[in-house]
């Protein structure tokens, strides 16, 4: 299947944000991209263009600025600034509850390294007042199945710019991963993940477009 044929779903985690840089739990807070983050988004756009992915039918993103700006940078780079775009909080990052805004080292001092590790790396244990990855998936997947999957199944080319854990939710669904497998799946910032899918949404191929794939 050539780059511009068939159903295409591209997932991109936003570039580095100011709070990523400071090692803070970000969740639903709204810090801007750093200069590095903007450069990562631009590199993602360049890698899409180099691979021949320069035409999408629709884009989806969260309501958070770091994802919106990442999408805007990519669309400008591939020449699709006017693309139909849908923003929804269903695609927001996992809500970290009482951890939000804390430096990860400070959180470890407050609750202990083991407990913070459980909150960060378990599938179904939420932090106080927040969401586990399982709860995030239960928010993301109904939106994906109602709004995004039908566009993919029609043969459209779909771009999603969102967050580590909202994208993990989609990846778990697409690849049939276990809870343990998905929490150990790392997503690089600004790096497009290209899925080619059949009409039923089954994955035919997956390609991660980073500098090593050029």
UniProtKB/TrEMBL annotation:
Q: Where is this site: Transition state stabilizer?
A: 163
Provide the active-site residues from the annotation. 14, 93
What Pfam families does the annotation carry? His_Phos_1
- Matches recorded under PROSITE patterns: PG_MUTASE (PS00175)
Question: Residues that bind substrate, according to the entry?
Answer: 13-20, 26-27, 66, 93-96, 104, 120-121, 164-165
Alphabetically ordered keywords of this record: Glycolysis, Isomerase
Q: Which SUPFAM superfamilies match?
A: Phosphoglycerate mutase-like
The record, for HAMAP family, names: PGAM_GpmA
Under NCBIfam families, the record lists:
pgm_1, PRK01295.1
> Into which family does the record put it?
Belongs to the phosphoglycerate mutase family. BPG-dependent PGAM subfamily.
Q: What is this protein called?
A: Phosphoglycerate mutase
Q: Which gene encodes it?
A: FGENESH: predicted gene_11.198
């Amino acid at each position: 299947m050539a780059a511009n044929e068939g159903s295409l779903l591209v997932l991109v985690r936003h570039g580095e944000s100011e709070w990523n840089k400071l090692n803070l739990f970000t969740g639903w807070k709204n810090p801007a991209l750093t200069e590095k983050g903007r450069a990562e988004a631009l590199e993602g756009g360049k890698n899409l263009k180099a691979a021949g992915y320069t035409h999408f039918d629709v884009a989806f993103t969260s309501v958070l600025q770091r994802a919106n700006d990442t999408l805007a940078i990519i669309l400008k780079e591939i020449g699709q600034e006017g693309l139909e775009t849908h923003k929804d909080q269903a695609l927001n990052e996992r809500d970290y509850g009482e951890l939000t805004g804390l430096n990860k080292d400070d959180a470890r001092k407050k609750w202990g390294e083991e407990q913070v590790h459980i909150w960060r790396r378990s599938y179904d244990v939420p932090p106080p007042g927040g969401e586990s990855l399982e709860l995030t998936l239960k928010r993301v997947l109904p939106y994906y199945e109602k709004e995004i999957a039908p566009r993919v199944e029609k043969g459209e080319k779909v771009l999603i710019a969102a967050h580590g854990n909202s994208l993990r939710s989609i990846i778990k669904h697409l690849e049939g991963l276990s809870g343990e497998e998905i929490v150990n799946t790392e997503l690089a910032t600004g790096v497009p993940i290209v899925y080619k899918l059949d009409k039923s949404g089954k994955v035919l191929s997956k390609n991660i477009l980073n500098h090593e794939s050029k």
